[in-house]
Design goal:
The protein has 264 residues and is α+β, with helices and mostly antiparallel strands. It has ten helices and eight strands. The strands form three sheets. A four-stranded antiparallel beta sheet has the order 5-4-7-6, with helices on both faces. It has a two-stranded antiparallel sheet with strand order 1-2. Strands 3-8 form a two-stranded antiparallel sheet. Helix 2 packs across helix 4 and helix 3 crosses helix 4.
């Protein structure tokens, strides 16, 4: 039975993708453009850019060629019946079955429009957008450096240009732009200054655990109640998630009774 599963899984892996262009053939195996796309998706985000170019895709293609060559040799040496391979395939099969069962079971769970509206009407205090500001900052290591940056801005240089040149924070390369944020998203010292600052004003240096900040606020939004339409998307995700958890908790409890867990 295990060998049948192995052959089936391998054959599925080797089938050409629909509408995929064949780039190379290695023996009787094909490598398609879709194979390279799949390989690219598996690369960690910080390395992806290096493989997205034409040269990068060529390197991925060579990796796939080498993998196919080694696979052919392993197949020739009957690794499709190797105990360690069969054991791993059995574990892969279990994992796939669990994931698919959960996807099918949880995917059926929905909430009605009536449920959404009822929850919204009964919990309106939860649907208030907090006060927000849109600001930029320059982070310096010392107060003196921060004051020097402020002086340059007051003399006419743009905040963004100074931030790009001297800020040691990650937002420096973007001109110090922090976008919109609420008070709770920032450390208290920074938040207190940002939310008390008038629009278009530049703050004095503010000390935090990260260093000394010069802050400029560009816009503000007062706290306001969300409409049902605004809140609907997040609310639906929340209620569906609650239902899914309840269904899974009840299912696990039922299965524990049917399949006693022993040996503890």
């Amino acid at each position: 039975m295990k060998k049948i599963v192995l052959v089936l899984l391998i054959s599925l892996m080797l089938l050409p993708s629909v509408n995929a262009a064949v780039l190379l053939r290695v023996g009787n195996l094909e490598i398609t453009d879709k194979d390279i796309d799949t390989k690219l998706q598996q690369i960690p985000a910080k390395y992806k850019a290096a493989y997205s170019s034409e040269d990068g895709r060529k390197r991925l293609l060579e990796q796939l060629v080498q993998e196919k060559l080694i696979y052919i040799q392993a197949r020739n040496e009957k690794y499709d019946t190797h105990d360690a391979v069969l054991k791993q395939l059995d574990q892969i099969k279990q994992n796939l079955m669990v994931r698919q069962y959960m996807a099918d079971t949880l995917g059926k769970i929905k909430v009605t429009e009536s449920e959404l509206k009822t929850y919204f009407d009964e919990n309106k205090q939860m649907f208030i957008k907090k006060e927000q500001v849109n600001a930029k900052h320059i982070l310096c290591k010392t107060r003196e450096e921060a004051m020097a940056a402020k002086e340059r801005i007051l003399k006419g240089e743009s905040f963004e240009d100074v931030a790009k040149e001297v800020s040691v924070g990650p937002s420096g390369k973007n001109g110090g732009d922090l976008g919109w944020f609420s008070k709770e998203q920032m450390v208290p010292e920074f938040a207190n200054m940002a939310f008390s600052l008038e629009k278009e004003k530049v703050s004095d240096p503010v000390k935090t655990q990260f260093g000394y900040h010069i802050i400029k606020v560009y816009d503000k939004k007062a706290a306001q109640a969300q409409t049902f339409s605004d809140a609907r998307g997040d609310l639906e995700k929340k209620l569906v998630g609650q239902k899914q958890k309840q269904v899974m908790d009840e299912l696990i409890e039922k299965l524990r009774k049917e399949n006693p867990v022993t040996g503890k």
